[in-house]
Amino acid sequence: MSSEQTTASDEADEPTPVTTGAESVVRALENAGVEHLFGVQGGAIMPIYDALYDSEMTHLTMAHEQGAVHAADAYGAVDGDPGICLATSGPGATNLVTGIADADMDSDPVVALTGQVPTDFVGSDAFQETDTTGVTRPITKENYFADDPDSVGDTVGEAFAMANRGRQGPTLVDLPKDVSNGETDREPGPPRTPPTYVPAETADERAVGRAADALQQADRPVILAGGGVIRAEASEQLGEFAIEHEIPVVTTMPGIGAFPEDHELSLEWGGMHGTGYANMALTMTDCMFAVGTRFDDRLTGGVETFAPDAEIIHVDIDPAEISKNVEADFGLVGDARAVIKQFAAAMDRSPDTADWCERCTDWKQEYPLDYHIEEDAPVKPQFVVEAVDAATDDDTVVTTGVGQHQMWACQYWTFTQPRTWISSHGLGTMGYGVPAAIGARVAADDDQTVVCFDGDGSFLMTCQELTVAAREQMDITVFVLNNQFIGMVRQWQDGFFEGRRMASEYDWMPKFDAVAEAFGAEGFTIDDYDDVEGTIEEALDYEGPSVVDVRIAPEEDVFPMVPSGGDNGLFALRGEHL
Amino acid sequence: MSREESEPPESGLLGPDPENRERPVGRRNSQGIRIDPETEATREPRRTTITALVANEPGVLSKVTGLFSRRQYNIESLTVGTTQNPDWSRITVVVEEPDPNIDQIEKQLDKLVPVIHTRELEREAVERELVLVKMDADEPDKVHAITEMYEGRTLDAGPRTITVELTGREQKIDDALDAFEQFGVREIARTGRTALARGETKTSIAPERLK
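Above: the input entities. Below: the structure tokens describing the complete assembly.
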């Protein structure tokens, strides 16, 4: 590093010209407005890290690359702009794979930068070599092998733009060490997508007109809001549209937060563990206005019985989603916000929904989300979720791992704002919660609370990331809903495998409060109802990372439940229904 | 939410059991298509040609074939070659799938960043396939006669083998191969179908900004 470079920060207006591929990569990230990076050092990525030494961007060293990519993913989901993660070649890059696949399934904007062995060694099975672009091709929106120091900066810019524009998703740039080290004086331009990539903005007007006609003639219309609504910043438009025309709103699980769950038109979320009333409405509707959803099987159950009476209006930025899983009667390709505006303009009257809304309200009475408390028995997880919700503000960001705890968090927390529910939906990645809380913490406003609900099994998969939270004194609170089971598996084994609990019982678990303390976080334990409120308050008040080991009722199940591939309208409310 | 409020209900949660709930009258099929019980029909697979104009860059073919295998679509044949513009290649794929899948294949192909334009060709498109057939040379006159009949050419003739070339639509090639079968076919190399739209119709349309 030359002495001129070390003084570069004093001359903020005049950035030092780039001299290497690595510096050009860093400049490209700066051009894109990147402020935070998540990663782990290593041999082949060292030139990039060296160039970061002089950058104003802050880098968070994670304990494991999987932590880096989940943190970047959650960062992107909270912030809206792509999260950036770095890893070295070989094992570094392969450790990113789960998180990249996760981001791909949820359309989360992530840019992964991986080191690679020098180009001369590529293909020779060199030390720490993996065909990273080959491995990640099916799980990235687009990936790149950078082969030229002159263009590597623009390639990183393109990767950023591709992750961000149209349907968001993960992109990856593989950076051979000689390309990073290579000389160049080419300054990268602003991030740009390639000319072959042109996502539609507005939908065809006539198609919108026909679809709007169908919606206003419907007797039992329902809006289905997916994660795409949040990604497109269309929550406000969607809310206004629903309220103006009095159409009940069901969200998908990734769409939670797209419409306030405390509004009377909200039926909360539908699908496998969604509310009974959402699933009744999805089943009985005669016209579904579905925005930014890909009709995942966890939402639809068996497609034969999904919204069987409904004409489906499907709005999506990705044309390939239209009629992929459920055939759309009206396919509208475009940006959710723009299309909802077009739709609002095309509606010259409202459907008559008074009776339908009343039926939806009746279903809320008939099938409430409920659980019951037995005195002198272990704490019910649902109660804990509700208690944390009550103790925090509306803009609190909730992250989770994957399993029963995720469903309870989703069911018993009342989400009212977009970008506050951050979870692993499509891939269902256990271990997502703690690193996601770290990424969310970096992206969230300082006065926003960040909590993580995790399960004992899920927490164990990535709890090493607590070191990062402790080192950075990040204010996050992790509630481990500890039932000493891989609970969701145990529930399925009980329901569908005659109670043969193969490999789902964790009959020995570490003391999670002590684990927290060993990592430098504050540890708490909740054993019974009398501890709940006080301990939650203490943990939330603690400035820094804290972990609450909540010893919950071990055999509590998640209901309602639509068995896999089943009929949404026949959801089970209790075990005897399965 | 308070603990006092949540007295256990008599039999778990409230609401009618699944069998006593309101039910819709409609149904969809396994492809997600709403069906009219009177005219219920499944869509049978059909064989068709999909053409894609793609940027001529490394990895395109792997992206295309990866897409097919990842989504479990079978490729009957696939041909690739450059076009009048050296920056572009044309990929011609033959698939046998039901309609919703054909539609999905086109959309998924279009989604790939290096793909400039993709569509399904109509039936009357100009389609050709090239085949090389190597067979025993015991009856050279007969082989020659059949080669002539199918407008083929003899590329190599020796005392023990004859290799001929044929081009034509798939059906013609299949027929010719059947006819050659009697001579003892040793090896066959088929290129797979390549095709262009007929007449003035454009096979692929590249947007102005890319020209």
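Note for the figure: Residues 1-9 of chain A have pLDDT under 50 and may be disordered.
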